[in-house]
Amino acid sequence: MFKNSMKSLLAMSLLMVVLLIAGCGGGSGSGIQRIAGLTIEGTVKTFFDAAKNGRMNEAALYVSAASKSDPQTVLKFMTGQTGVEQIKNSNIFSINQVAQQGNYAAVVVTLQEQNSFKLTIKPIGLEKINGEWYIVDSDQILTDAKYKVLQQLLGNI
Q1: pTM recorded for the entire structure
Q2: Domains delineated in the chain
Q3: Does residue 107 register a pLDDT over 90?
């Protein structure tokens, strides 16, 4: 039990550092580049694949800058409430865009736990910034007035 707790703590600490570095712009010299021109579904899938394979610097490229710099997001990563372990043990079953209004979109991602029939449904909000889609942290959607439209789109799911 102690070993698992230590691994989780180490993984979350590493993830927090990665997100802080990426949020401060420190990832630009790493040679990792965001794939340009992805669809909404492509953005979610690319983020998921990078996160699942432990490439958190790459995954961070698909998260909005505002979400990466939000203290609440950092707190969620520190406390293990990010779902990273769920991502590592799941496969995408489907990604369905359910709404889009202007620069905001809502999708529903269905994850299937590996070696299981268990399905988990996750609503995800995205924002289009400079022609590219970025994932927005769900807590930020609920608290930031800027995301009122996105909050309404997700509320209809």
Answers
A1: 0.72
A2: 2-155 (3.10.450.100)
A3: yes
